[in-house]
Amino acid sequence: MTDILAKIASSLYNGQSEEVASLVQQALDQGLSPHQVLQGGLIAGMDEVGRDFKAGELFVPEVLIAARAMHAGMNVLRPLLAESDVPSIGKYVIGTVKGDLHDIGKNLVKMMLEGAGFETVDLGTDVDPQTFVNAVREHRPKIMGMSALLTTTMVQMKATIDALVEAGVRDSVKIMVGGAPVTAAFATQIGADAYAPDAASAVDVARALVS
Ligand code: B1M
């Protein structure tokens, strides 16, 4: 069992998209749960990519190819993670903040929320504050989530909250933030309602916010 997860992680590291998709399917066929495959295979592989990227052993093109392989694996898992007969428990607008192109974590959070019964509206990456404001006006979500992976872009979370206040819609929505450099203390400091460290916690936190 752990063998196939290790194979998924190393194929992801090597950017072998087709191999990753096929191994993910094999792991599921062997009886592993979608969450086991996600955590022990895909996320484990991407963690290794992150470590070597930081150490200067991998460069942006290699990371991009690994990210593509991660998406290929997630495409197989998506319907299973989102599988749910729970009726919608509320709308959730989500996006990665301005200047930030990282979307793997944001997409995972979105998939898990959909699995938990939230109806999601995905604004994508590099979302400027005004686009968040417009989406809150248009979709009237119960929760708006912002993701940031860079210390240089997490400040956009505060800029977006300020824009919501200025537009007079801040109090109509709960705000959740997350992403590797974001902390609970930072969330409080910028006036967000909640912080979640990972996709699974994001579901618990979102449920608590709407209950
Ligand atoms: Co970039 N990158 N990257 N990168 N990248 C990081 C983030 C970095 C930590 C790598 C490193 O140096 N170790 C570093 C940031 C350093 C810093 O700011 N302190 C970094 C850098 C520097 C950069 C560039 C500036 C590199 C360059 O060009 N010189 C550049 C910036 C581009 C931009 O955004 N403007 C850049 C580019 C890229 C790629 C495009 C090559 C690619 C992104 C591809 C894509 O997303 N489509 C990429 C990647 C893949 C990474 C790493 C390796 C992996 C990120 C990832 O997907 N992790 C990353 C290193 C790392 O984090 N280990 C790195 C897997 C994912 C499942 O985890 O996104 O943390 P994560 O999401 C988690 C939680 O954080 C949480 O739940 C998720 C699932 O559990 N979460 C939320 C996330 N959002 C949430 C929202 C919530 C709640 C929870 O509520 C709303």
Task: Tell the overall outline.
Answer: globular
Question: What strand order characterises the main sheet?
Answer: 2-1-3-4-5
Query: Which structural class is indicated by helix and strand composition?
Result: alpha/beta
Largest sheet geometry: 5 strands, parallel
Radius of gyration: 17 Å
Describe the structure.
- There is one protein chain.
- β4, α8 and β5 form a beta-alpha-beta unit.
- This protein has 211 residues and is α/β, with parallel strands linked by helices.
- The chain is 58% helix and 11% strand.
- The longest helix is centred in the middle third of the chain and has 22 residues, at 60-81.
- It contains nine helices and five strands, in the order ααααβαβαβαβαβα.
- The mean pLDDT is 91.
- The protein folds into two domains: 2-83, Orthogonal Bundle (Methyltransferase, Methionine Synthase (B12-binding Domains), Chain A, domain 1), CATH 1.10.1240; 91-210, Rossmann fold.
Structure summary:
58% of the residues lie in helices and 11% in strands. The protein is an alpha/beta fold and 211 residues long.
Main attributes of the structure:
211 residues; alpha/beta; Methyltransferase, Methionine Synthase (B12-binding Domains), Chain A, domain 1; Rossmann fold; 2 domains; 5-stranded parallel β-sheet; binds CO-5-methoxybenzimidazolylcobamide
Helices, strands, pairings?
Blueprint: H1 2-13, H2 17-29, H3 34-54, H4 60-81, E1 90-96, H5 104-115, E2 118-122, H6 129-139, E3 143-147, H7 155-166, E4 174-178, H8 184-190, E5 194-195, H9 199-210
Parallel strand pairs: 1-2, 1-3, 3-4, 4-5
Helix pairs in contact: 1-2, 1-3, 2-4, 3-4, 4-5, 5-9, 6-7
The structure holds CO-5-methoxybenzimidazolylcobamide (B1M).
